[in-house]
């Protein structure tokens, strides 16, 4: 399946049972909700997917399960976040064997690679696989910025096709467009810049709170793309206090709690993460309850 690198693509959470096993029934329920809402791809094993806690067998199960559930309707993409080039090449190979049709790639983990090392890392993986790649540029959380000059060097690899833009600098979308035209698709990776990025010309939105609110997220994107800005803005203004739960070190716990409140997830996380507690839990619950009390009736958006 061809990856278009556009539209809303949820970075889905990994569902666990109280016994710390994969909760496939709840995982499937959430994936089905995403497909029904109109997302245009599923991304597994990202930060929200608690990738660093998953073993290879669990990743295999998640990919194969998702491929079966989406049944060819939308692409299944997996994140590659490895410490070594060898490990990243192996992860890309396994992803293709398990049925993924695209990769989202972070720079090397733990070691703060310089520009030359980072470009070489991406280049070696790109040469090793036929899968299309979206480079995840998030210097705030991961410490390495993929600069425009680095993206210039990577243009020669046809399978490096997209950028997940998470620098928090909204004008970077325009810089990418000015320099590269349509060479790269650009998807925002910051929930609180979802609408703004779409209006600035982003092709899509790799979203987090979509895990709990799939229809609202897709509606904002599609309405904005269709030029129905007021309708998109009305939903987005309601949504923003909830979207801000994505900008937190506890984003996984926040979003999993939101999934509980919308009935398509559980609160179980994998240690060392623990569910929210105390004042922070009370604060997040109030945001969710206030939002659900005023949850908007969505206009018809799927045909847009």
From TrEMBL:
Statement: the UniProt record of this protein carries the keyword Oxidoreductase: no
GO MF term set: 4-hydroxy-tetrahydrodipicolinate synthase activity
Protein keywords: Lyase
Origin organism lineage: Bacteria, Pseudomonadati, Bacteroidota, Flavobacteriia, Flavobacteriales
Active-site residues per Swiss-Prot or TrEMBL entry: 136, 164
Family stated for the protein in its record: Belongs to the DapA family.
Protein name: 4-hydroxy-tetrahydrodipicolinate synthase
Top EC category: lyase
Entry binding sites for pyruvate: 206
InterPro entries xrefs: Aldolase_TIM, DapA-like
Pfam family, one: DHDPS
EC number from the UniProt entry: 4.3.3.7
Organism for this UniProt entry: Formosa algae
